[in-house]
Amino acid sequence: MIGLVFIYFIGKAFYDLAELHHKSKWGFGILGVVSYYLGVVIGGVILGVLSELQVIAIDDIPEIVVGLMALPMGILLCWGFYKLLQKQWSKAAVPETTDVLDGDLIK
After folding, report:
1. Among candidate residues 23, 19, 7, the one with its CA nearest the CA of residue 74
2. How many domains does the chain have?
3. Which of 30, 95, 100, 106 has its CA 20 to 30 A from that of 64?
């Protein structure tokens, strides 16, 4: 259930960011959710590697706890991707100015 809440808010954040910068809203909303799940998978792989190296004993931990352990990696990757897009798109945006005499937009 908590995963659905994350999906909604992540998708909404990326959707709003894309709408603000006049990009594909649904495409980037879905891409934001995919980045979250990619981060969770990467976190799970890291936990698996640590388990094989016998740094942590993951066999004794319930599956839901392992999922919660991989969750921060998903959130971190999603947040990083959001900030990267925000920085790139705000840098590319050219502020519109108005001509004082005519009131027309100059591009």
Report:
1. 7
2. 1
3. 30
User: Is the residue at 50 inside a domain?
Assistant: yes
Please check the confidence at residue 35 and state whether its pLDDT lies above 90.
yes
* Residue 75 domain-assigned (yes or no): yes
Side-chain-side CA neighbours of 41 within 13 Å: the count stands at: 6
The DSSP 8-state label assigned to residue 93 in this structure reads: P
CB-based contact 35:81 (threshold 8 Å): yes
In a domain, 100, yes or no: no
Q: Where in the sequence is the domain holding 46, given as residue range(s)? A: 2-85
Cα–Cα dist 15/33, whole Å: 10
Q: Give the whole-angstrom CA distance, residue 99 versus residue 97.
A: 7
Mapped onto helix, strand or coil, the DSSP state of residue 97 is strand
Q: What is the pLDDT of residue 99?
A: 54
- Residue by residue, DSSP assigns 9-70 as HHHHHHHHHHHHTTS-HHHHHHHHHHHHHHHHHHHHHHHHHHHHTTSS-GGGS-HHHHHHHH
